[in-house]
Amino acid sequence: xxxxxxxxxxxxxxLSCLMILTSVGSVAQTKNHYQADSDKLTAEFHKExxxxxxxxxxxxxCAVIFxxxxxxxxADVDFVYHxxxxxxxxxxxxxPNAMLxxxxxxxxxxxxxxxxxIFVQARDASKEKxxxxxxxxxxxxxxxxxxxxxxxxxxxxxxGLFNGLSKxxxxxxxxxxxxxxxxxxxxxxxxxAFQLKSSYPTAKHDDYLLGKLLRSMREIxxxxxxxxxxxxxxxxxxxxxxxxKALKPAMTEYQVEAIGEYFFMKEGAQEPAYPSICGAAENAxxxxxxxxxxxxxxxxxxxxxxxxxxxxxxADITRTLPVNGKFSEQQSKIYQLxxxxxxxxxxxxLPGNNFYDPDRVAxxxxxxxxxxxxxxxxxxxxxxxxxxxxxxxxxxDVHDVxxxxxxxxxxxxxxxPGLYFPExxxxxxxxxxxxxxxxxxILITEEGFVNLSAxxxxxxxxxxxxxxxxxxxxxx
Length: 476
Ligand code: GLY
Ligand code: MN
Ligand code: MN
What we know:
Layout: H1 2-30, H2 33-38, H3 43-56, E1 61-66, E2 72-74, E3 77-78, H4 85-91, E4 99-109, E5 112-120, H5 125-131, H6 136-144, E6 149-151, E7 167-170, H7 187-197, E8 205-206, H8 209-218, H9 223-246, H10 253-266, E9 271-272, E10 277-280, E11 301-305, E12 308-310, E13 313-314, E14 318-322, H11 329-347, H12 357-372, E15 412-415, E16 418-421, E17 434-437, E18 440-444, E19 449-451, H13 460-468
Parallel strand pairs: 1-7, 5-6, 7-8
Antiparallel strand pairs: 1-4, 2-3, 4-5, 9-12, 10-11, 11-14, 12-13, 15-18, 16-17, 18-19
């Protein structure tokens, strides 16, 4: 009896170990740090970006780019650090208190012939014990491909960095600087030293041109960037599918948000690319709603605008769903109109078209539809129910930089028409509290376009069918 008991204990123990190992194995398969890091942009990518920028800079100019400031959340707690996308694009460095200088021509810096130098946080065992590893100058050189890297402390002591230049380009002095009086080389000190050393501002300083050059570069995504953007979209599509499957009345907006963000992280995203917008009923009519505290009722629509960030690159996807799994007749009518406008606008995402062509297409269909439904009398009333544009660029920023001219292969834009009828709108009260947006991420190609989020249901029947699928969050 005792032996059988012991054997049973052993078998249960062995099975438990196996289960733990299997689950660790499957976690390792989906979220392995080494694997995740191995698909980051390479040092060569960032170096090529610097070369391309240099080739566009005026003769005898230099460009100065600062890392983002750290931002206080409250008391001695900071917000999670997010790098300045321009700085990341050109360097690959994700640390604060750093500064990059690129010169058009080679020159001698501290006796070394170079055309670029980066100042970074020095290694510091006591700081790293609290806040994690810093690359320091030697790893910035070995892993990010810089010839010259100096501790930020040394910038103040270097002379001649801005001598003999016809132009000093920057993207403006960073805002929200707070001087850390325990540090001699935080961003605030670097900026102050830069202003002193370069006699800022003089006629040589130009805080417009660099932004313009970077916009024209960042709006065209390279194949390496497109891979990361597709990954961000794939992760976000998975999260949206799981939210569709789990959604039901009596949940709260934040519970739906939690499911989406759980899948972002489970699939390897670093964080949401922007605060998740999970707005039900009247909240769906608030364009950038972030409170996410309401309880969901039968008959509500919920607008889910959620995208993951993967190695700095954003997805931005919206679906609007019926909380009880079926669109009402009134909801279907408006949904179908937005969907028709969205699909037609996507068809206008062609190389050679203008950035605003998809917007024009969407607005024409929406205003014709609302005029037919006798909600408005003329197209100029559309803005009351469609108060935003149809597209923005997408990349390292969710509202990415771009030139808003001709669409070209390599550009990535969102297509996101919507209609919103807040309570009290001068229309049939049956429309009140309907807020619908449908948003996909569209890559312009040589041949036309590719929808990076095409795998996610958006037809009414497709959504209703997906919502009948079992969720891992269902009780039984
Ligand atoms: N997620 C914000 C936007 O769609 O622009
Ligand atoms: Mn969005
Ligand atoms: Mn968007």
